[in-house]
Write a structure and sequence with these properties.
Radius of gyration: 36 Å
Strand content: under 5%
Helix content: 55-70%
Structural class: mainly alpha
CATH class of the largest domain: Mainly Alpha
Number of strands: 0
Number of helices: 14
Largest sheet: none
């Protein structure tokens, strides 16, 4: 029985190895998926794009198991996974918390998804609209430049949302200062006010001093030297201004 089961497992692995890389990435066996991902990482870009196309279909499908396998593979397959940005953004609201968390990590890792995320600032989905600025901030300079490019698209609402997003980033949005300066000279009063507010927020946070640490203590407590209490006769003398009369010793009779 053991020999038959071993032979069956070997045959399954051989069949999985002969299958297409995209299909193996969706296999139930974790070892097959790991080997397929390692093999896909060394493939040329044309092959990777075909694999990504298959993973996009699986991520948009109804089976939660395939969605989890697909988003895990997209996280590690490389920059070619940027083509799956629409499916990854839709997966942020997935009912499976593993899929939604993995989709967020993948979007942060893939800098090429920044333009799609910057355009999602006007998304009708409230979850995506709230998550997009956070992911763009985590992407660093690529996310900031993508948001700054929104001012060239001619949309008033997109320009307003971009100002608000850059203002929340603070000094991290320094690369977007030229675009905000151009928006501050706009004829639209609301866009102008939002751009000025973002510039003020960036400059104010940049000038803010670092908080001073209180440990070890900045102020050393002075040691108080306690003086002994004076004897009562000195207190009475200080109050009355005269010395008390000396006491006479009683004489001892022999």
């Amino acid at each position: 029985m053991k020999t038959l089961s071993l032979a069956a497992a070997t045959a399954a692995l051989l069949l999985a190895g002969c299958a297409a890389p995209g299909k193996r990435l969706l296999a139930d066996d974790a070892l097959v998926r790991a080997s397929a991902l390692e093999a896909a990482a060394g493939e040329p870009s044309k092959v990777k794009f075909k694999i990504v196309a298959r993973l996009r279909k699986a991520l948009a499908g109804k089976q939660s198991r395939n969605r989890a396998y697909a988003v895990t593979a997209l996280e590690d397959i490389g920059p070619e996974a940027r083509r799956a940005a629409p499916e990854l953004m839709a997966a942020l609201g997935d009912e499976d918390p593993f899929v939604s968390a993995a989709a967020e990590r993948t979007l942060i890792k893939l800098k090429g998804t920044a333009p799609a995320l910057a355009g999602a600032l006007l998304s009708p989905d409230p979850l995506l609209r709230s998550k997009a600025p956070e992911i763009l901030a985590a992407q660093g300079e690529a996310g900031v430049l993508a948001v700054a490019a929104n001012f060239e698209k001619g949309s008033r609402e997109l320009a307003l949302e971009s100002c608000y997003a850059l203002g929340r980033l603070g000094p991290a949005a320094e690369k977007a200062v030229p675009a905000l300066a151009r928006a501050a000279s706009s004829s639209d009063a609301e866009v102008k006010a939002a751009a000025l507010g973002a510039l003020s927020n960036i400059a104010t946070r940049a000038r803010a001093p670092a908080p001073r640490r209180c440990w070890p203590p900045c102020r050393r407590r002075r040691k108080r030297r306690w003086k002994p209490w004076p004897p009562p006769w000195k207190t009475l003398t200080a109050r009355s201004g005269r010395m008390p009369a000396p006491r006479s010793r009683p004489s001892r009779r022999k």
